[in-house]
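Quick note —
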Amino acid sequence: MFAKEANIVLKKILLIFLIILLTFLFFFVFTSFSQEIKEEGEGHLSIYFREEKVGYEEYAWQSDEMGYILEVSGRMTKPVVLEIDKLKLRLDKSFIPQEFYFKGSVGGMKQEITSSISEGDVKNIIQVSGQESEAKVKIKRDAFLLPNAIFSPYIVLTKRFRCSLQEKVELSAYIIPQLEVPFTLEPKEDSPCLLIMHMSGIEIEIETDEEGNLHSLLIPSQRLKVVQESSP
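Predicted structure written out below.
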């Protein structure tokens, strides 16, 4: 009798232990999963032209269950007068662009661009000074969206490659909403976190880290420098 009761008690203890273990494992997996999908970061990019500070961009990068979102605001006075009221870029988990939105002004002219992208098919709705137009274009599915004279979207490049690029690769950029251009990207010798980009005859140096943060961007031929700095 005593042995039977002891066996029952032992089974109950084992059951309780198993429940506790499963609860702990569930909590651990859930916490790890939550951390994986909640990558977040904010930054302030200072823009210099011919050694003069001419603007800034503030960005927020985050991930969710669908992929990644980049949001940007800022302004620049040289070499282009640019106001970014809002820029939003959505990508899937493979960094493939899906949606783009821009509201601001270029050269004093108000603009609003709403773009949807699916498998390389782009639909742009463009509003300039109250006039609306629609355009459809075909780009490479994995083309990077790099709006002209806006630098925060280069974060998509650094997040994708970080310091892991081993050799030169041929890629494509969509200078939304104008045109698509090819470019190459390669790590600088002995400096895997310094990426060298060649696009339309222009060399761009991009400095990142193991987490894919954008530390600096340098365009020597245009005397442009963009650096990550603390917000003023």
